[in-house]
Specification:
The chain is an all-alpha fold and 170 residues long. Helices cover 95% and strands 0% of the residues.
Length: 170
């Protein structure tokens, strides 16, 4: 029985060792296959990623080129609009300057007429005042003449009443 204690575990150890060795080889083969598949998948993923990155870079470059082209077109359009607006403003300025010149000439004519009318009005006002003065002087002269006639008449009436040559009426 002592032998069995030693033999049975050795046989079982050998059997277990064989099974372990077979499984370990299978496991190594599976690990290598998984590693190869993982490497292939990783290689494919890297290839796909680099292709995607290449497409993305090309797309970004195309968008940048389109953006630059759009900016250039926009800048050209703004320059054309600015040039047109500048020309329009220059034309309007020239027209306004011509109109201002005409209005200045018209203003000078109107000021000349206003000056003439003012002088005529002042002359007329002066003549009116002069005529009013003359009328007033003539009224005063008339009143003085009437008073002189009245005074003379009174003096004659008084002398006549005092004089014996003029008969008195009863």
């Amino acid at each position: 029985m002592n032998r069995f204690y030693l033999i049975i575990p050795l046989v079982l150890l050998a059997l277990f060792g064989g099974v372990y060795w077979r499984h370990s080889q299978q496991r190594d083969a599976d690990a290598q296959a998984r590693a190869a598949a993982f490497a292939a998948a990783e290689s494919a993923a890297k290839a796909q990623q680099s292709a995607t990155e290449g497409k993305a870079r090309a797309e970004v470059a195309a968008r940048a080129a389109a953006r630059v082209e759009a900016e250039l077109k926009k800048q050209e359009l703004l320059t054309a609009q600015w040039t047109a607006e500048t020309a329009r403003i220059a034309a309007e300025t020239e027209g306004c300057q011509k109109q201002a010149t005409l209005l200045r000439a018209e203003l000078a004519g109107v000021e000349q007429q206003l000056s003439t009318v003012r002088h005529a009005r002042m002359d007329a006002a002066g003549q009116g005042l002069e005529l009013a003065r003359e009328v007033e002087l003539l009224r005063i002269a008339k009143r003085n003449a009437e008073l002189e006639v009245q005074r003379t008449t009174e003096i004659l009436v008084r002398r006549a009443t005092q004089s014996s040559l003029v008969p008195t009426r009863p």
